[in-house]
Structures are given as C-alpha cells and as structure tokens.
Specification:
By secondary structure, the chain is α/β, with parallel strands linked by helices. The chain is built from 10 helices and 9 strands. It starts with a strand and ends with a helix.
Length: 278
C-alpha cells in the first residue's frame, strides 16, 4: 500500500491510501479516518461509507464533516472509491455507467465482468486489508448515499452477521424498478431480471431472513431524484409487509447534496455507535 495523504483532523488523522486490488485487478484508493483512540493504540470499530454516482473516495471525506462525530465515538471511517479505475478498465461516456458507477455488485457480463467486482471488494477484500493494516476491530457498520445507499442496504441484507448496523441517505431502494438501476443492471448483470433481485433492497426485504437489522434512512423532500429514481415509499411498503424495522425520516427543503448529508451525519454515527457499543 502507498499513503497518498495524511491530515490532522479532530485529534485524529484523515488519510488516503492506494493499493493493488486483487478483486478489481486495478489500483484502488480509499480514505481512512483514524480517530484519536486509534492513534492511541485502541482497536476501534469501522464504519464503511459507500458514495454515489460520479464520486471518488474524496467526496465523503471532504464534504460530509463526519470526522468530528467519528472522533467523539471512536470510529474508524473507511470510504472506498465507487468503482474500478484505469485506462484498461471498461467505461461508458454516461455518468451513470462504468467508472464512477460500480453499483456495489459483481458484474457477470462482458466487458464489465473483468474488473467490476465491487461487492467482493467492499465485503471481503477491503475489510481484510483494513483489519490487517490499521488498529481496527472486527466490529463493522455500513452506510452510504444514493447509489452507495443502495450498496449499504443490499450488502447488509445479503451478509447477515457481517455488519452490526446499517443506514443510508437518499438510497436507490428498488434499482430493478427505476431508470438508474435498470440501465446498470442490464449492462452488468444481463437482461434476466431474476438475477437482479439479489441486488435490490425491496426484493431482499421480502425474503425470509435470520437477521433483521433496523434500517435508518434519511430522505430530502427537495431531492430532484426522489420521484423517478429513489422511491423510498417502495421500501417503506416492503418493510411494513415483512415486519422489518425501518426508521424513514423525510426532511422538507433538503436536496440530494452533501449539504443534506452533513446536516444529519451526526445522527447516523450515533445510530451506529449505539449498535457497536462505541
């Protein structure tokens, strides 16, 4: 691994690292915030943050203001990039497919399958790296925004016991039913819609599960993508039907931006701290 950045921040350190990924077959970057407790030698729980379309590891670490709460609770924050990167990695001219739009799944279709294995990267490879190289415990939480909210919800639902808690901001809750998801899933997974269900929160909620992690979701009502792409009412109905615990908070006047995330990120870290005992 190679350290690219290191900044003092709320008594801790905000770092950016680069490493060769065995899952994605390219170099990947991630941000890691080490709170004062970690610098003092304490093994700390880890919150994984998954960002949305067009983002890199930089968006969350520079715009969300999460380091202050992480320092208070003793969290390590890990923010990976949103897709594989490189000149030999398949891409698309549109913002909602290809590099910057990995959708946190393992692609099965050419040309994407060669590199686009973000599910393996986030669930397996990155935690193994973090727990081997940083003062991290094996207690994990996961959160994200938009496409990353989709990723956080689906990965928490698919891997019971892997995460102690989950939350999301303005997530794509039913990608099988909205344009962003239909486009990406067709490209990455093919036209068989039955294969899409394993990556759709609404479909996953309906399945019988041994674990029912409470979901915390914040949604701005001035979000330009609310009606066409996000559709939180679909998840709300699915949770009601399945008896799955959901806290869905709707906020008048808030849009899809990091101003919205920064306004409520403290609530989310408190939610995760309670679950993790931090």
């Amino acid at each position: 691994m190679q350290q690219l950045e290191n900044h003092a921040c709320f008594g801790g350190q905000q770092q950016v690292w680069q490493h060769p990924s065995s899952s994605l077959h390219c170099d990947m970057r991630f941000g890691v915030y080490l709170p004062p407790q970690a610098l003092a030698g304490q093994r700390c729980p880890v919150l994984y943050w998954l960002s949305g379309l067009t983002c890199t590891e930089q968006n969350f670490i520079t715009k969300a203001g999460a380091q202050h709460s992480a320092a208070q609770h003793g969290f390590i924050l890990v923010a990976p990039d949103t897709s594989p990167r490189g000149t030999d990695v398949a891409d698309d001219a549109a913002y909602d497919l290809g590099q910057g739009a990995g959708f946190y799944l393992n692609a099965t279709q050419a040309p994407w399958a060669a590199h686009y294995r973000m599910e393996d990267y986030v669930v397996q490879e990155l935690p193994a790296l973090i727990e081997a190289h940083f003062p991290a415990s094996t207690h994990r939480a996961i959160s994200g925004h938009s496409m990353g909210g989709h990723g956080a919800l689906t990965l928490a639902l698919k891997y019971p016991g892997r995460y102690a808690s989950v939350s999301a901001f303005a997530p794509i809750v039913a990608p099988s039913q909205v344009p962003w998801g239909e486009k990406a899933f067709t490209a990455y997974l093919g036209t068989d819609r039955s294969a899409w269900q394993a990556h759709d929160s609404v479909a996953l909620i309906a399945q019988e599960r041994s674990e029912r992690l409470p979901l915390l979701i914040d949604q701005g009502l001035a979000d330009d993508f609310l009606a066409a792409q996000l559709r939180p009412e679909l998840l709300e109905a699915a949770c009601q039907a399945a008896g799955h615990p959901l806290t869905l908070r709707r906020h008048a006047g808030y849009d899809h931006s990091y101003y919205f995330i920064a306004s409520f990120i403290g609530d989310h870290l408190a939610h995760h701290a309670q679950a993790l005992g931090a």
